[in-house]
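Run log, item B.
One chain of 634 residues. Sequence copied directly from the ordering sheet:
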Amino acid sequence: MFLLEEELKKLPDQPGVYLMHDEKDAIIYIGKAVSLTKRVHQYFQASHNEGFKKAQMVKQIARFEYIVTDSELEALVLECNLIKEHRPKYNTMLRDDKTYPYIKVTLEEEFPRVFLSRQMKKDKSRYFGPYTSAGAVKDTIDLLNKLYGLRTCRRVLPRDAGKERPCLNYHIKQCAAPCQAYISKEEYKERVDGAVRFLNGDYQPIKKELEGKMAAAAAEMEFERAAEYRDLLNSVNQIAQKQKITDTGAEDRDVVGLSKDGQDAVVQVFFIRGGKLIGREHFYLKTAAEETREQILSAFLKQYYAGTPYIPRLIMLPIGIAEKDVIEEWLSARRGQRAYIKIPRKGMKEKLVELATKNARLILTQDKERLKREEGRTIGAMKEISALLGLSGIVRVEAFDISNISGFQSVGSMVVYEKGKPCRSDYRKFRLKTVLGPDDYASMHEVLTRRFSHGMEERGELREKGLEDSYGKFSKFPDLIMMDGGKGQVNVALKALAELSLSIPVCGMVKDDNHRTRGLYYNNVEIPIDSHSEGFQLITRIQDEAHRFAIEYHRSLRSKGQVHSVLDEIPEIGPLRRKALMQRFPSLEAIREASEEELAKTPSMNARSAKAVYQYFHNDSSARVHHIDEDADL
């Protein structure tokens, strides 16, 4: 048993990391301390104010544990690693976990390559970055390969030179083909050096070269070649123009800005490399209302720089932080060289921090507006639908659809929306087992019966195991069922539910003659709905999604040949005759009702094959069902 008072007495007056657990033994908070006994005691002192968030956390603490370290720096490193691994509920957390792209030049190879890399390793390669846009990195790499004719293959050169024919890039003049020894090592190295200078921001040499080649080609009346040089020149100019902010300091630095509004915070980081702004990125953080900007910045620095492979020499902040010295020491150790945290007070550096802060504020404002619009499209739209139907508490909606080709290979789909958003992990798909022919009502009855029968079985199994609060593949039931159709489909659903003694509201999504949604059918009444409302748009999205999911599943089965047709079971009927029957007759039911003479008139059929088909459907025909496998999950 964990006795709080006794365990508090055992805390050492040493630096370390403490972990708070709740009654389910989940880690809810991780912190570091210069003195474990002083810091942990503070949480349980009535006179000490940790803020509302920490107060809520303290109420949930069932026990704590701690790890002693030799220094505050070691505690900081351990804290960062543990937070990243466990992601505790009450720690200020980054919402993003991204890996940034680099441009890698394999200088250790005799014929180097230039490509995108997500990791910066300690090797002999040259790395440029990190960049914030993988698309921009790929565009730059493509341009470099075109400009300098660098290879993109993975052949080991010069060992593999001449073993295979040159690739397409050589023939379209985008590679100098070192694989064929068409270019010397020295000349190829000059091209790689040019690419490295380009990545360092020296665009003038290649621009002058392209301008000269374009003019020469135009003078020789080779306008197509001149146009190619013009396009390359435009690409170079576009990349050069992206470097809009320069700094005469020409050193690597990260400029950090912060904006906070209530429990929402955004940190904006400008990446300055070689004196140029190469990119920027913003990060959303979840915070407590009472957390200060200093605390948020400190938490951000520890989490972000624990996960990024590159640490610049200088990090500029808008305000000071209490842990500046220890974080600087930690960053320096990770970097392998001295790293600094500074708060600029004047000049260009101060303006850069102000600009980053302004961008963070703008993003936070825009994000709040976006979230408000998104809420209108989702939760707000669901409330509109609830009001139209006179229902309350609708969170989960399930919609169903059937797809087939003239009754062949029928499949059913179930899509799920929760709080107005698609819940794709809960989508389900069904292959029809017992229905023969294009009977959508019977097909829908089978799908609904199977869906809720499975759900009731799962609920019983979970109750037996004492897991009433858990859910299986089918045991979570909807608050509303939406059918793709009107009165007929709704009545089919109600009948299937009644047979299972279930009571779930069912409405139909009614379409007009042009196959466009016009309203809802509920309690034997068609309810019109404003076509400009968010509720209407959500109904349309649900209807389209159910239809799309059913069609894609049906198409995938057909393309993979995974659906077994009834006709495949008939002797004398191969792929050619099966296709001919499907083209002549509108449905499987029509084939079943056809006479031997009518069947024999089908192209590729003869009297013997027609007789085989007729006998198959009329000898113990009650046993002939379209048998397909069990339910499949998304």
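Observations after the first pass:
- The first strand starts at residue 16 and ends at 21.
- The CA atoms of residues 407 and 438 lie 4 Å apart.
Flagged for discussion on Thursday.
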